[in-house]
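Section 3.1: Structural characterization of target chains.
Under the original work plan, the team committed to producing a structural model for every single-chain target entering the pipeline before any wet-lab resources were allocated. The record below documents one such target. The sequence was received from the expression subgroup and is listed exactly as submitted; it comprises 433 residues.
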Amino acid sequence: MESSNFNPSLLRFLQSSPTPFHATQSMKSRLLEAGFLELREDDNWVIDEGGRYFVSRNDSSLIAFTTPTLDFFNTGWRMIGAHTDSPCFKLKPNAQVTRHGHHQLGVEVYGGVLLHTWLDRDLSMAGRATFKTESGDIKSRLIDFKKAIATIPNLAIHLNRGVNTDGFAVNPQEEILPILCDATNEFELKRVIQQQLEAEHDGLNISAILDFELSMYDAQAPAIVGLHDEYICSARLDNLLSCFVGMEALIASDYERPSLLICTDHEEVGSLSTCGANGPFLEDVLRRLSPNPEHYVRAIQNSMLISADNAHALHPNYASKHDKLHAPSINQGAVIKVNNNQRYATNSETSAVYKDLAEQEGYDVQTFVVRSDMACGSTIGPITSGEIGVPTLDIGLPTFGMHSIRETAGSKDAYGLYKVLSRFTKRATLIDR
């Protein structure tokens, strides 16, 4: 993809992906457009040499791969990993709440949300709904209201005089219920969901809404901002930014080396699920491709995974939060993440491979190590490495405001990572042993 088209395409992807379900749907559409074939886990697979394939699980996780050869045990895989989920508010099963003249929604905090950033924002709602048809079948469809339908107003400073000096702790049970409308209007949540499904999908013949997995999201569109267009500002940059970069890198590969993209759900809550990195999804796919146990182990040990997840950029207003020798800057290149306590899976060899690739493409590389007096986050890197034993690098694009409703990254960094990852998919030898 040309650099002039990259960020506009990224913004469109972010806009069309308000939930992991929609992100996976967006990736499916792009992969089909690029000539990939969709597989189903409950079907028999016939994998051809020279093929391009993808498979999804739970509608929220996806693995795409290329098979220029079926000799995986000698070639290994060039793997890129990311995650489809982001911190947000998810509706509770009994979400309909009416208080003091307003209809509201009861929500549960998903992941490490910066709660106060969700106040005074235009919110919409999207996700997956499951229903029974008039013929008795049970089906699921995605749903996206798209327009702003709710807000969580702040408390006026006149009623909270100490907010600017004493801080503001948000109570997630009582103070983050989105307001939908006033109580003079009729509101029945399942009826509203059914109406929206019928508006988005023709011919559903719904007899009853059985259940739903819906999330609130920021209705403001992604944007390029800055006096000289230096920044990308959007919801869900962590980690849809990496999903998009990895997907486009796979599509741009020369299809001469077996390459694989894995984008999994539930990273923000530990990855332990059927479709998370701490579940069996990746191993299930790889063992179907290499059913011989000896060949499977050889394939893994000839492989490498680059786990791409956003990194903390040096914030000019909070510089003391960084180790000054490991403080990455926005628009200065991707960030290798290192933690000797194995919160990141980077080692000297996987780091060296990336540095060599970046040098060949002419891009800078930065390094992040958390301050020794602060706790370190983690990624799917150590989880995947620990699950299947693949050598792994943790890397990310420097970001401000991680886990805010609206995050900020550099407008130059994503394309640079895309170019380096594209070269990675073509790499013949990883480490000469």
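Residues 237-252 form the longest helix (16 residues).
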